[in-house]
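Students often ask why inverse folding is considered easier than folding. One informal answer: many sequences map to the same fold, so there is more than one right answer. In these notes we will look at a single instance of the problem. The structure comes first.
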């Protein structure tokens, strides 16, 4: 009888990429908060994040989007050596699409709100890029975490954390879509103003993306520390014992 292993050999985790992903996504969220105070003319309850890229301090919002893209790119680099099955590679591919989409959001500024069709070329690229990143990232998170929990022995001790953090963005996206269906879409395609609550739900959704990313990167650091500790113990146990030479004492 042939027994097939379900796990692959443990590969080293790029810890610099893990820490960079955490630093970048935290910086992104900090910039979002700072911009609320820098632009008091924009109410975060009914203005979309993209609107902060128009007008004063617009460059800062564009930079924030690019910093967010950096966090996804660093996470992609960290995970590349940790994924061992088709499901995980599909998740990585989706994460790469989200990274490119976030770069598009930061590079191409949105058209003024409310959107008037036909959109400009810049506005179209921004809309397509932002929508793809927002909608696809939960699928990437779920597939990647499920793959790590099932196929990578270094990550299996954190299976419970991987499963709930991988599901969190999907649940948040479902809630976001329900919110749009009930409170926003019935107001019409051009609805925009104090009575259109599109601001905070999107911010909360991106916050869950941050929670997923930080949890994954932190777990990568813990797994690497555990592997290093295990390697040291194996080295100590396998080291040959020192022989103590006893010099015979001559009694005259």
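Output (designed amino acids):
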């Amino acid at each position: 009888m042939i027994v097939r292993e379900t796990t692959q050999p443990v590969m080293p985790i790029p810890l610099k990429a893990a820490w960079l992903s955490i630093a970048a996504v935290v910086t992104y969220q900090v910039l979002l908060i700072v911009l609320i105070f820098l632009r008091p003319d924009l109410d975060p309850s009914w203005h979309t994040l993209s609107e902060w890229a128009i007008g004063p301090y617009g460059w800062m919002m564009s930079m924030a989007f690019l910093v967010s893209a950096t966090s996804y790119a660093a996470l992609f680099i960290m995970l590349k050596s940790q994924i061992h099955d088709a499901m995980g590679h599909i998740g990585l591919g989706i994460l790469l699409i989200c990274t490119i989409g976030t770069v598009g959001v930061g590079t191409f500024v949105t058209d003024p709100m409310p959107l008037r069709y036909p959109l400009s070329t810049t506005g179209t690229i921004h809309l397509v890029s932002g929508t793809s990143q927002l909608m696809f990232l939960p699928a990437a998170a779920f597939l990647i975490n499920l793959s790590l929990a099932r196929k990578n022995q270094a990550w299996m001790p954190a299976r419970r954390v991987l499963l709930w953090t991988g599901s969190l963005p999907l649940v948040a996206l479902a809630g976001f879509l329900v919110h749009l269906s009930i409170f926003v879409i019935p107001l019409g395609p051009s609805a925009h103003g104090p009575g259109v609550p599109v601001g905070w739900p999107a911010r909360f959704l991106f916050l869950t993306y941050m929670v997923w990313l930080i949890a994954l990167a932190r777990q990568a650091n813990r797994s690497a520390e555990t592997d290093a500790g295990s390697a040291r113990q194996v080295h100590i146990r396998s080291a040959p014992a020192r022989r103590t030479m006893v010099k015979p004492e001559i009694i005259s």
